[in-house]
């Protein structure tokens, strides 16, 4: 099945060892989805309350997963292990060291849904992989079972004239000299490169935007771009983006703060509405820290693809259809990612003859335009597709330790707390487990 975002919906499962929660007397199953950045992690610093919060969830029998628009080209197992180490290292003095088991299946990275939703359909097909570090993203693709993956950098190396700046950078010569003998010898016309591409996967941010954009546009125009510049008979090339964030919070400093009027509540609200319309979590990042993310790469690719179509004299009236059919978005707050998240949360329910009559899911995050927007959309989805035998609802809990600041729009968050400890305490009280 496909979601409204164009992505494929997935089911998921976790080891039985994680299924600790009992269904309440009224037949309700509750579980928590934690964001990571801005909740457990602030820049390079980690919350001293993270370990204690997870321990309380464990003691109360409330299962949990982690969902992030990041991933950095790591496998879920590696990310889970590194996360556990950081949470334990940052714990307050006196906190018991025991950390509840964190399985890879509880770690939902931006590209995690692809393992079940995309990989089975692409196992033997050729895929263009975009993202860095190269070795890490290739390792993730291999762990998902993909057997015919070409990294964008390898493809550009294979066909040296794709990127006229690559050899110029290495040799220190002008890029206008790409036809000299040293470069011509690198051209790989004899390389076995006949397999057509079936999809483009933008797993995470590429280091070399120019090269990645050029290769992606070439493949969007033709599944065999070395043989044919544009193939009008080919199906539209799907390009999957794992993360919609246009901007993300880093520690890049400016020497002067923006004028106060630029950070006024009204300004933030305007920026939030823009982010809401664009399905991006960009706008609420403070401008002193904002750097371009994968969503910006998508904007650039869309613009350049449209420009190339005009250059090829492809009828203008077909451009929107081509782009809409090709571009597939994943990550918070998309329906595709939240349906996958719900499947993963349901897999935490105990194996019991008593099936829950209701599901209450909590999203603890720091971003109204990403975390809370996903909650808002999920509640609309379940009100529209309500099943008589079971009700599903989401509650959003904002924390003040990340993107959200007092005065910002909450996007229908149920409550705002100072941090992850307060957020978990709120859930436990609501579930009668405090």
UniProtKB/TrEMBL annotation:
It holds the Pfam family Hydrolase_6. InterPro entries: CDP-alcohol_PTase-I, HAD-like_sf, HAD-SF_hydro_IIA, HAD_sf. GO terms for biological process: glycerophospholipid biosynthetic process. One of its GO terms (cellular component) is mitochondrion. Signal peptide: none annotated. This is Uncharacterized protein. It comes from Calcidiscus leptoporus. The lineage of its organism: Eukaryota, Haptista, Haptophyta, Prymnesiophyceae, Coccolithales.
């Amino acid at each position: 099945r496909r979601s409204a975002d164009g992505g494929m919906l997935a089911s998921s499962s976790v080891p039985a060892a994680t299924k600790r929660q009992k269904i309440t007397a009224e037949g309700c199953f509750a579980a928590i989805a934690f964001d990571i950045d801005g909740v457990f992690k602030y820049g390079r610093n980690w919350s001293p309350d993270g370990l204690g919060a997870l321990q309380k969830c464990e003691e109360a029998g409330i299962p949990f997963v982690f969902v992030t628009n990041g991933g950095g080209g790591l496998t879920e197992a590696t990310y889970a292990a590194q996360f556990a180490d950081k949470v334990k290292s940052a714990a307050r003095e006196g906190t018991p060291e025991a950390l509840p088991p964190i399985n890879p299946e509880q770690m939902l990275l931006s590209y995690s849904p692809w393992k079940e939703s995309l990989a089975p359909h692409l196992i033997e097909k050729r895929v263009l992989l975009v993202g860095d570090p190269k070795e890490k993203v290739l390792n993730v693709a291999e762990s998902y079972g993909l057997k015919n993956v070409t990294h964008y950098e390898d493809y550009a190396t294979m066909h040296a004239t794709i990127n006229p700046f690559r050899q110029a950078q290495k040799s220190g010569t002008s890029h206008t000299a790409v036809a000299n003998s040293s470069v011509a010898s690198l051209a790989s016309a004899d390389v076995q490169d006949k397999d057509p591409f079936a999809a483009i996967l933008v797993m995470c941010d590429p280091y070399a935007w120019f090269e990645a954009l050029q290769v992606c546009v070439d493949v969007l125009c033709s599944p065999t771009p070395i043989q044919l510049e544009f193939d009008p008979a080919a199906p539209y090339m799907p390009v999957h983006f794992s993360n919609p964030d246009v901007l993300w919070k880093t520690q890049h400093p400016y020497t002067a703060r923006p004028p106060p009027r630029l950070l006024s509540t009204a300004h933030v609200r305007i920026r939030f509405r823009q982010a809401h319309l664009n399905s991006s979590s960009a706008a609420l990042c403070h401008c002193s820290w904002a750097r371009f993310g994968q969503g910006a790469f998508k904007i650039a690719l869309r613009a350049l693809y449209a420009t190339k179509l005009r250059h090829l004299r492809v009828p203008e009236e077909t451009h929107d259809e081509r782009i809409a059919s090709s571009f597939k978005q994943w990550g918070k707050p998309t329906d595709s990612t939240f349906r996958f998240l719900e499947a993963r949360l349901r897999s935490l329910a105990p194996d019991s003859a008593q099936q829950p009559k209701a599901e209450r899911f909590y999203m603890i995050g720091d971003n109204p335009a990403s975390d809370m927007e996903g909650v808002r959309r999920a509640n609309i989805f379940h009100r529209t597709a309500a099943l008589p035998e079971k009700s599903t609802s989401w509650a959003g809990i904002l924390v003040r330790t990340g993107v959200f600041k007092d005065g910002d729009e909450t996007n229908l968050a149920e409550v705002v707390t100072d941090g992850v400890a307060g957020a978990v305490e709120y859930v436990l009280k609501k579930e009668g487990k405090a």
